[in-house]
Design brief:
Structural class: alpha+beta
Strand content: 15-25%
Strand order of the largest sheet: 2-3-1-4
Bound molecules: adenosine-3',5'-cyclic-monophosphate
Largest sheet: 4 strands, antiparallel
Number of strands: 4
Helix content: 25-40%
Order of helices and strands: EHHEHHEHHEH
Radius of gyration: 14 Å
Distance between the termini: 16 Å
Shape: globular
Low-confidence stretches: none
């Protein structure tokens, strides 16, 4: 089915000038960018986004990292977009990510792992709405 998923290009990948390379991988895989913006997240905005991890030991570092520089948030649309994006990203820990995936090629650590992608239809719906209002999404 056609789905939408939220993608974030994280501060490490933005700092590496890899925005275009990463978006190019989405487009070459048949995903369409239907919304995009660059943001420097506040602690509150990053903490709210990752609220489900609030009790995890890595939460503070995660919020610190995600607020350390600008990010590019996008809505990707396409057939099985959620799973397709997760395949393109590779495992959360770049050391376990398959060769040729975004995290294998652009990330070094589990904290600075280049990209985020929604992990289920329910989280995609929440995450897209967390960053974009309906009039900021351009169906195409
Ligand atoms: P992301 O997909 O953005 O979701 C939560 C992030 O927490 C994850 O990517 C990692 O960058 C980061 N993180 C740090 N340590 C861990 C861990 N042990 N398990 C899962 N995620 C972690």
């Amino acid at each position: 089915a056609t789905e939408r998923t939220l993608s974030i290009i994280k501060p490490d990948a933005v700092a590496k000038n890899a925005i275009g390379d990463i978006i190019s991988r989405f487009e070459k895989a048949g995903l369409k960018v239907v919304a995009a913006k660059m943001l420097h997240l506040s602690e509150e905005k990053a903490g709210g986004f990752y609220a489900e991890h609030k009790e995890r030991p890595f939460f503070k570092d995660l919020v610190g990292f995600m607020t350390s520089g600008p990010v590019v948030v996008q809505v990707l649309e396409g057939e099985d977009a959620i799973a397709k994006n997760r395949e393109l990203m590779g495992a959360t820990n770049p050391k376990e990510a398959a060769p040729g995936t975004i995290r294998a090629d652009f990330a070094e650590t589990i904290d600075a792992n280049a990209v985020h992608g929604s992990d289920s239809p329910a989280s995609a719906e929440r995450e897209v709405a967390y960053f974009f209002s309906a009039d900021e999404i351009c169906p195409r």
